[in-house]
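Exercise 7. Given the components listed, write out the predicted structure of the assembled complex. Treat all entries as one system.
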Amino acid sequence: MPWLHYCVKPVIPFKILFIVSGTFLEKSGCFFFREKKTDVSDLLTPPLGIAYLAAEARRAGHLVSAVYIGAAGEIEKKLSGAMRNFKPDVLGVTCLAGDADFTARLFAAAKRINPRVFTVCGGPHATVRPELYLCCPHTDAVVRGEGELTLRCLLEALGDEARLHSVKGLSFKNAGGAQVHNPRRPLVRRINSLAPPALDIYADMDFTGGPYKDFRSGFSPILGARGCPFHCAMCGTHSIWQHIFRSHSPDRVVREMKTAADRFGVHSFMFLDEIFTLDRRRTLRLCEKIQRAGEGQYRWFCQTRADCVDAAVLRALKAAGCVYVNFGIESASDRLLRVIKKGMTVKQNLSAVRLARRAGLKVSASFMIGLPTETPAETRMTAKLAKSRDFDYTGIASFIPFEGCELAADSGRTGRFLRSRRTGDRRKIWVPHGHTAAKLEAVYREVNAVRMRPAAL
Ligand code: B12
Ligand code: SF4
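Answer.
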C-alpha cells in the first residue's frame, strides 16, 4: 500500500497536485456532443471544488499545484511533466458521472511515474460509488462528500493506518487491500470559516471561459451558498450537499469579487449556487452590497427557481449587475414536471420568466428531453417551448439517469442505456421506452440550432 511508504514519518508539508480534467466532452461520449469534440474548453470554467480544497490544504501548511489535462491521450505527457517539476506526494482529482475510466487511467499513469504517490479522488460520482473507484488497483482513497476537512484530516493521518480509520468521510484500502468505508462526515457548519478558493492555482491555465487569460470574455466562477433543499428526482447535487442550504455572508462574497477584480482584473462572475435567491432577505442584502462594491462594474450570471423569485428580488438582481438569470424550466409538460418532482408548473415557470424580463434581465432557460415516460409528442412540446422567444439563451440536455439522482434507481424499468456511437461506452445514452435515440438527437439539434450564446457576459 503506498501510504505505508509514509509510515516512518510523514513529511510535512505534503505536495498536492490537483488534476483539472478538460475531457468533459470526450468523456461524456454522448452523441449529442459528438461534433464538438475539439471545442472542449468553451464549457469549462476553472473548477471551484479543487480551488477550495487547495486553499484549505494551503492553510494547513501544504503546497499545492494544478495541471490541466485536456484529453485522455495527453495523460502521460502532461502528468509526467507536472510530476517531474512539482514532485507531488499526493495526487487529487474530481470525479463526476462518467469519470471512472479516466480516473483509473490517470492514476495508473501516475503510479507508473512514481509508485509512491498517494492517489485520491472525490466529487459527486466518487461519493456515490466509492467502491467502484477503489476497485481500481491504483486508487488509494476516495473522499466522500464535502472535501475540505476530510482532505486535511487525511493528510494528517497519512502513513498511520489506525488514524486513517478515524477520518470521517474517507474510503480507503487497508494494508491487506480490503476496502474500508468510514462513516460519513457531517457538513461544515459555517462555510464562512472555509478559506476562499485558491483560484490563483489556475493562473497559467488557458480556459476559454475562464477568468485569468482574457477577462473581457471570461468570467470567474463563484459560490455564494452550497446546497438546495428541494428534491427534484433528476438531480444529483444532494450527494454532496445533502439538501442542506448554507450560505456565505454577503460581505465574504463581495470580498471575493473584489479580490478577483483587484488582483486579476476580473469583473464578470458566474455564481454556481444551486438557487441564488433561495433566502430572500439575504439575496436583497447581498445584491445591495454587490451594487455598492461593484459601482456598476460587476456583471454576473446566476441560477434560481421560478418559485424563489418575485419582482423586487429580480429588480435587485438587475441593479446589482446580474445580466443573465437561469431558470430550470425542464419541460413543457406539467405531467413530466410531476415525474421529476420539480414542484412547479409550466405556467409558474413562464410567469417568472416574464417577471425577470420585465426587470430588465436576460433569461437563460434549461430544458431536458428524454425524461422517463416522456412521449415523442411531449418532446416536441418541449422543443417548441425551448425555441420560443421567451428566452435569450436556451440550454437543452438529454436526460441521463446519473447515479446519485433518484430517477436512476428505476432507469432499467423506464428506459434503456445504449452504446455510445463514439466511445462504445454503454452508460452514456439513455432512451425512455417508447422513444428512439434518433428522435431525441434530432430534437436536440433542432433546438441547438436556434439557441443563442450568452455573449453579454
Ligand atoms: C460547474 C459544474 C460542471 C462543470 C464542471 C467543471 C468545473 N469547472 O467545475 C461542467 C460544465 C464541465 C460540468 C459537467 C458535467 N456535470 Co456538472 N456541475 C457543475 C456544478 C454546477 C458546480 C460544481 C461546483 O463547482 N460545485 C462547488 C464545489 C465547491 O463543489 P464540488 O465541485 O462538488 O467539490 C467539493 C466535493 O465534491 C469534494 N471534491 C470534489 N472533487 C474532489 C477531489 C478530491 C481529491 C477531494 C479530496 C475532494 C473533492 O470537495 C469539494 C469541496 O467541498 C455542479 C452542481 C453543484 N452545485 O455542485 C454540477 C454537477 C456536479 N454536475 C453534474 C453532472 C451530472 C454533470 C455531467 C455529467 C453532465 C452531462 N450531461 O454530461 C457533466 C460531467 C462531465 C465530466 N464527467 O467531466 C451533477 C453530478 C452528478 C454526478 N453523480 O456526477 C451535478 C451535481 C449537477 C446536478 N444538479 O446533478 N459540471
Ligand atoms: S434541480 Fe435545482 S431545484 Fe431541483 S434539487 Fe436540483 S438544484 Fe435543487
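Discussion: Confidence is low (pLDDT under 50) at residues 2-9, 25-43, 208-217, 453-457. The domain at 211-456 is CATH 3.20.20.70 (TIM Barrel).
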